Each structure stands twice: as C-alpha cells, then as structure tokens.
Amino acid sequence: MRVFSSDTGGKFFLPYDRLILATGARSRKLGIPGEEARNIFTLKEMSDGLRIRNFIDRYNPRKAVIVGAGNISLEVAEALRDRGIETTLLYRGKFPYSGLEPELGPIIVKELEDRGVRYLGEVQPRFFETDGQKAQQLVTDQGVFSADLFFVGVGVIPNSEIAREAGIIVGKSGGIQVNSLMQTSEPNIWAAGDCCEKLHRVTGQPTLVPLGDVANKEGRVAGENAMGGHSEFHGIVGAACVKIFGLEIGMAGINEAQAKKMGFPVITQIVEGTSRAGVYPGASPTLLKIVADQSSGRLLGGNWIGRDGEARKINVLAVALHQGMTLEAISRLDLAYAPPFSPVWDPLLIAANLLKRKTGNRQ
Amino acid sequence: MRVFSSDTGGKFFLPYDRLILATGARSRKLGIPGEEARNIFTLKEMSDGLRIRNFIDRYNPRKAVIVGAGNISLEVAEALRDRGIETTLLYRGKFPYSGLEPELGPIIVKELEDRGVRYLGEVQPRFFETDGQKAQQLVTDQGVFSADLFFVGVGVIPNSEIAREAGIIVGKSGGIQVNSLMQTSEPNIWAAGDCCEKLHRVTGQPTLVPLGDVANKEGRVAGENAMGGHSEFHGIVGAACVKIFGLEIGMAGINEAQAKKMGFPVITQIVEGTSRAGVYPGASPTLLKIVADQSSGRLLGGNWIGRDGEARKINVLAVALHQGMTLEAISRLDLAYAPPFSPVWDPLLIAANLLKRKTGNRQ
Questions:
Q1: Does the structural domain B31-153 have CATH classification 3.50.50.60?
Q2: Please, which residues bridge with residue B151 across strands?
Q3: How many other C-beta atoms are found inside a 10 Å radius of the C-beta of residue A94?
Q4: Which of A165-174, B21-30, B209-218, B337-346 has the lowest mean pLDDT?
Q5: CA-CA distance, A225 to A223, in Å (whole number)?
Q6: Does residue B237 belong to the interface with chain A, where contact is any CB pair within 8 Å?
Q7: In chain B, what residues touch A313 (CB-CB under 8 Å)?
Q8: With an 8 Å Cβ cutoff, are B243 and A340 in contact?
Q9: What's the whole-model pTM score?
Q10: Which of A135, A171, B153, B256 could form a disulfide with B68 if both were Cys (CB 3.0 to 4.6 A apart)?
C-alpha cells in the first residue's frame, strides 16, 4: 500500500470508500525570532522525547528554561529536575495551568519552588538570542533568561488543514467538526482524536481537548462507524488530572472564570480538608473548589488538589457532571468512608451542602 | 440536667417534646461458653480500644486469635501484627469480609499471609477453655487454637430494645424503622445511626449499615427535623472501603450472590488492570468486578481491589449506583486520565463496555 508522505514532498493518490482523518495535532510555537535553534524543544511525539533525552545525554545541559505551564511543561520540569538540571518555568498567566482555579495557583507555585523550579508568571517572551546554531538566552518583557536547553510547551494546534482544504467544515476552535458518530461534514469521512472538536457536555459547546484517553475512545467510535457499525461518542466533561512532583490535581467541568464568561449565574465554594481522617497517620491537606449554576443548582465544575490519591477523587465530579447532577443531589451521595481514605465528611459533600444553600432550588 | 444512667441501674423520668434515639449498636458475641473471660475482647467504643491496648501493654501477649473477618477484625489483625503479636484469624466463611465477591478472597488471604497473619476459613467456634479468669484456648470444629489474647469481631447488633419496648416499630433487620425524615413510627420520635435501618437505594430494601459516615449524616437530618426544620436522608448505596495492610478494597452496591438471591437476572464482569499506565513506575495490579441487571442494564454493584489509591475509585461506582446508571451510560463516561493515576482505559469503562454487550438494552 502506498502512503502519502510529506517527508519526501511527494504526492500520492490513494482511493478510498470511507476515510478516517486521524491527523492529530502539532506543538504550538511561540512565533518569535530565534525559535528554530536546535536547543529549543517541543514535545508531542515519542521522537520529540527521544530528541530531548539525546540532547541531554550528549551536551549535559546545566540550565533549562521552560516556556508554558500546562501538563507537558510541568511534566518536563519534573523530568529535568530529576536529571539535576537547574530549571526556570516562565508563563504568560499569573499561575501555572491555565484551566485551573486561581486559588490552586499558590499551592502549585510553592510545590515548584520546593522542588527547585524557579517560577515566573505574567511573562511575555520576545525573542531568542542565538549563535546561529543554539539559543543562548530568551529575552522577555520581564528580563533575559539564559539556558543551555529551552523547552516550549504552549499547547497544540489541530492538524485540520487537510480537512479544510478538502472542503470539510472546521470549527472556530480550529478542530474538525464532527457529530456524535465522529462523522465530518462529508458523510464518508470520519475524524477522531486531537484533530477534531469534542462536545463539552457541561457547556453544550464544541471544544478542543487534546487528551489520549479521549482520542482513543473517539478512534474506536470512528472506526466502528466507518466499517458500517453504529457507535456514538457522547462528549466530554473536561475531566483530567495531572501530577506535579508530589502534588496531584484533578479537574472536571469548567472553572469559575469560564462559567462567568458563558453567562452562568455562578456560585462557588472552597473546602479545605484532609486526605484521610484527621487522626489517621499520613493525612495531608487538600483543597476542593466547586462551581455551580445558582439558578438551577447544577454543578458546573471543580478542581481538587492534594497529595495522597486526591486526583483519583475527581472522577466523582466527572460522573456528577456527566449526569447533570445538582448540588442537592450531590449532597445526598453515599460515598465510601474509611479513615485511611477520607474524612468522615467527604470534602465534596461538605462543599455541596454549603453551596446548595445559595441556590434557588433547595428542596 | 439529669440523664438516664444504666451504669447505676437507676431509672429517671426525663420529659420530652421531641426525642431522638441515637442508641447505636453493640458488639455481637459468639454466644459460646467461656466468652466472658477477661482476655477476650470486642471493639465498638473508644474504651474498648483502650482496654485492648492496656492489656497488651500490661501482659505483653505473644499470640492472638481473632474470630471474624470484617472491617474491625481485619484492622485489629493489622494493629496486632504492628505490635509483633503472632496472629491467627478464624472466619466462618471461606474468605474474609462477607460482603465481598469471592474472586477477591484469595488476594486478601495472600496479603494476610504475606503479613504474617495465619488465616483459616470455614471455622465454627465451639467454646473457650478458661482458667476461670483468662481464656487459654478456643475450641473449634477445625481444631484448638491457643492464645494469650482473643478478639471477637463478628458484627454489631442495633440497640433497638428501648424502641421496641416503647412500641416503636423495629424492622426484621433488628434496626428501628425510619422514614426519609429519620422519623420512627412515633411522630415525635426520630432515630439516627447504627440503631436504625437505612434504605438501600439499589435494592429498595431496608438494611443495616453500621458505618460512621452514614450515622453522622443521619444524625444531622434527625436533629434538623426534630427542631422543626426539613431535611431528608435518601438512603445508601452500600459504598465502603477498607485497608488491609497494603491492600485497598472498595465496594459499592450489592454483590453477585446478593443480587441473585434478590431475583435479579445477573451478569458480571471481571477486569484485571493496573493502577497506573503500564509504563509508569509504580503501577500495581488491580481487580474490578461489577454486577449488573441483564434486562435493564443497570449497574447493581462492584468491588475494586488494589494497592495504589484504588479504594478511592469506588466512589465512581457509588455515584453511578446513586443515579441508577446503566452499563451503556457508564461506558460513555469521561473519566480523568493521566499515566500516574490510571490506564488510558479505566478498568470501569472496560468492564462496562464488555458487559453491556450481554444486556438487552444496548443502544
């Protein structure tokens, strides 16, 4: 079988009855001068990772600067610190991880600093100064940062150009539009993964969510339908989790700022708790923030941060969001309790109980 | 204020407008000869725990025999091993923890044995041989077990006698009957906690669940209503978790045997997985078994066992059970994924996807 290859620049015509676009996404670039220097890395494919590792093995860099503070940048920061490399993280926002509630920000910054990562927020990169081959420093509006290795982790762009060129509808997000069958605007063409939009069940809007588990599920749906079967992908609720050194963060739904922007009458509740019953050895502090629609009482989202398996608790919110549960219903949940795993009153139950008093639909 | 005191044997008449019964439960006894010896312990109150600790501190026992293998017995076994005491656990069932699926049994037995606890199942205690003060051995149908300390953890009995004597309706379970307001059959008398029955939302039947978090929630409902407010307790789904040495077990709903006994057309699915993405350091094996109603596709229950925060995942099933979700709906959930926290396909999604094929309501 002949395959279209962009490496050779050649073009091949490959006939099809049914086509699945799984073109993925590519690393976003900063779009500033000097960015092509060979010690500036991004990370999307396995080969990118190997390239970074090879560079470290060969050149033994002592200082690194990371631009961006999402999943990938934070994981790269941890990996670089594990290699003993002095690491600075620069981010355009005030706190790391753009989708998170700002109340989590200081906790994350403290963890980064405790683990030897220097963090600077509200930084705008201007250009890299290079010697032609390698970048030597990054010039920003907040000063000049020199390093032996630079990493740029500022998100991904869907590879939807091939679809757009073929006349397939591409959404405002830049992702290929699909229905719940993962079918594009062309009936015999399906799409799956980071190249296409997903329905966000909380907002009802299409969104981009470049996550492996979502792509994996979509691929199965697209494949089954392309082969004449019937399967549907029913959208996402924005459930995700990330480990930042010893911190665990879970998130689901939309945050307060997003909810306000969408016009929801927003109420929020923060609960600080512990990961285990207070008397149980190993209990560590946790913080939960939930966001709800004041008029309907419906949960809109939440962030949960802690150290002791807390990230795994976010899926309770994910199911509640999937089901469109209200605070009243959430406050009635029977959740498993034992001293090694949670306080008697789960922080989510406390939050729902407190916040439901502010809603219009109290029973 | 004068308080009824059973310690003095005195009786006081305490007038009330509204009364809340929160009489709790007491440890069940084996009801065999010799059980009153002073080195045979149960554990329900803090004072029971202090009594055991004082006995250990004073007499330095070298061998212990535990009868029973529920939450309390298993936690006592761990505590005794921590004190270096040779511990044997005897249980009437084949595998520890009566409500669990039998597939978890060998995993738990292995953990007990790996941690130095000798386990024998299908044992019927006959009597204790005592020297008048202390028991020296427990005679069973499977042989004679000598020890310096004996522990009996075979469940609790609701303290519902006071209600029964007052003409309040007590259910077949032995717990005080209450409605969703925690009101007994006498309008001005409420009840809460281990002394009363709870509605099991999966079966629709009243049941006994002597757990602290449930009692705590019920107490608030009873108190609010007794003071003229309005609050409801909407029942339980059997969500619980337990730590057995390094093992974590979560359970929710009803098990296969219980479901069959209740006449559900039962289908089950076991999924063996890992706690993290396979490539991620620290991944450990997990086992999930779910039980569903074949005709409606509704989830009826599940057990989850593992080592690495797995018990915290059971609450996803707890919410699904609370909402009466079908396997089809569960299979569509967007759950948070990151390599340190789960495989790309969460075992619950795999289980629901596999099992929904056996139901009558596939989309």
A1: yes
A2: B41, B66
A3: 11
A4: B337-346
A5: 5
A6: yes
A7: 312, 315
A8: yes
A9: 0.92
A10: B153
Q: Which among B314, B336, B346 has CB closest to A240?
A: B336
CATH class of the structural domain A26-156: alpha beta
Q: Minimal Cα distance from A252: which residue of B?
A: B336
User: Are residues B315 and A313 in contact, defined by beta-carbon separation less than 8 angstroms?
Assistant: yes
Residue type, B19: L
Check residue A362 and give its pLDDT: 47
pLDDT tens-digit series, residues B207-243: 999 999 999 999 999 999 999 999 999 999 999 999 9
Residue B362 contacts A, CB cutoff 8 Å? no
Q: What is the pLDDT of residues B138-153, one digit of tens each?
A: 999 999 999 999 999 9
In this structure, the number of other CB atoms found within 10 A of the CB of residue A227 comes to 10
A311 touches chain B (CB under 8 A): yes
CB-CB under 8 Å, B333 with A240: no
Q: Which residue is listed with tokens 């001293």?
A: A339
* Distance in angstroms between the alpha carbons of the first and the last residue of chain B: 64
Domain A240-356 coded CATH 3.40.710.10: no
Query: Cβ of A241 and B319 within 8 Å?
Result: no
Give the ipTM. Answer: 0.90
Q: What is the mean pLDDT of each run of 10 residues along chain A (363 residues)?
A: 49 90 97 97 96 97 97 95 97 94 96 97 98 96 97 97 96 97 96 97 95 93 96 95 94 97 97 86 91 97 91 93 96 92 91 92 48
Q: Which CATH architecture has domain B161-226?
A: 3-Layer(bba) Sandwich (3.50)
Phi, psi of A108 (to 5 degrees): -70, -45
User: B76 CB near a chain A CB, below 8 Å?
Assistant: no
Q: How many angstroms away from the CA of B173 is the closest CA of chain A? A: 20
In chain A the beta strands, taken as DSSP E runs, fall at 19-21, 25-27, 40-41, 63-67, 86-90, 117-120, 125-130, 135-140, 143-146, 149-152, 156-158, 189-191, 198-199, 206-207, 240-244, 247-253, 266-274, 285-293, 299-306
Q: What pLDDT was estimated at residue A2?
A: 39
